[in-house]
């Protein structure tokens, strides 16, 4: 099975922590040159220094904020010009999830903000990178979204809505770009041990009036695997989709949820 990403460049969003950082690690383990992106210069420096490196890999970082899509676009374009880089073969669209709460209580501006942070940034990045992917005859766009595209999650109204938009955007792109050797797929994490999960557990406990241990036990009980995922387990699925071996997988939603999603 060809998992070798030697010589390939990857750009990973939300890569200072959590699932994004783990994806960056897994791609680096397969040989890619990985560019990590997020808002914090300090955390990105630490992430780059900690990435696996066989001595020839050129890892780097871009400081950018998904709430500012035009500035994010300019940061990526400037980086590519400065480093004389025409092709980034792998794009992993990932950033922090929207705040929780029922859809009916969300302010309309929260939907605009989520659309901006998720869909608009994905679109800017795809437009920048697809020409290089086409020229290389190899491209991978992988979106880290949520199992809510298969089964909405109560209490995550804005997130459920925006994930659906990203999933339909991705499916449409997969139809448009497959002919160029570019695949577009979504990874749907289940409960994954990151800061995001800690905040979800805290919110559930506060809302239900029970303690966090009880909430954690309930969440694990909902999951056939009986446990949470590590960020690297989710990242491994993304890294496989990025590999040459996954060339014929296009336009899918891949749950990595320990079997929790109760739909086909
Ligand atoms: P996390 O909060 O641990 O990490 C998010 C990353 O995105 C961090 O690097 C953070 O700095 C970065 N980020 C946040 N806001 C940003 C912004 N405005 N601009 C640039 N970077 C920004 O989250 P995670 O658990 O790794 O989740 C990643 C994605 O997967 C999120 O969309 C999340 O909702 C989704 N998800 C997570 C879980 C889970 O259980 N952890 C489950 C389903 C879906």
General description of the model:
The chain has 264 residues and is of the alpha/beta class. The protein folds into 2 domains: 9-190 and 231-253, Rossmann fold; 192-228, no CATH class. The chain is 46% helix and 14% strand. The chain is built from 8 helices and 7 strands; from the N terminus they run βαβαβαβαβαβαααβ. A 7-stranded parallel β-sheet has the order 3-2-1-4-5-6-7, sandwiched between helices. The longest helix is centred in the middle third of the chain and has 29 residues, at 108-136. The chain is globular. The mean pLDDT is 97. Nicotinamide-adenine-dinucleotide (NAD) is lined by residues 14-20, 38-39, 65-67, 94-97, 117, 144, 146, 189, 191-192, 194-197. Nicotinamide-adenine-dinucleotide binds next to helix 1 and helix 6.
Primary descriptors:
264 residues; seven-stranded parallel β-sheet; Rossmann fold; binds nicotinamide-adenine-dinucleotide; alpha/beta
């Amino acid at each position: 099975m060809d998992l070798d990403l030697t010589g390939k460049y990857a750009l990973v969003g939300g890569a200072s922590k959590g699932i994004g950082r783990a994806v960056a690690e897994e791609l680096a383990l397969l040989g890619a040159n990985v560019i990590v992106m997020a808002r914090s210069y300090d955390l990105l420096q630490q992430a780059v220094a900690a990435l696996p490196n066989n001595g020839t890999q050129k890892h780097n970082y871009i400081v950018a904020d998904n709430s500012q899509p035009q500035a994010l676009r300019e940061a990526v374009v400037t980086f590519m010009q400065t480093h004389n880089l025409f092709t980034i073969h792998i794009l992993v669209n990932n950033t922090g999830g929207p705040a929780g709460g029922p859809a009916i209580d969300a302010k309309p501006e929260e939907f605009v903000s989520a659309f901006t942070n998720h869909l608009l940034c994905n679109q800017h990045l795809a437009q920048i990178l697809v020409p290089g992917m086409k020229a290389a005859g190899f491209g991978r766009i992988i979106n880290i979204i949520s199992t809510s595209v298969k089964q909405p999650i109560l209490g995550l109204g804005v997130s459920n809505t925006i994930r659906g938009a990203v999933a339909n955007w991705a499916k449409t792109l997969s139809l448009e770009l497959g002919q160029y050797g570019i695949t577009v797929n979504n990874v749907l994490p289940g409960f994954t041990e990151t800061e995001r999960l800690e905040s979800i557990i805290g919110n559930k406990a506060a809302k239900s009036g029970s303690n966090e241990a009880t909430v954690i036990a309930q969440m694990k009980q909902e999951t056939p695997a009986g446990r949470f995922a590590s960020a690297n387990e989710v990242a491994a699925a993304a890294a496989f989709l990025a590999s040459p071996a996954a060339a014929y997988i296009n336009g899918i939603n891949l749950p990595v949820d320990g079997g929790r999603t109760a739909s086909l």
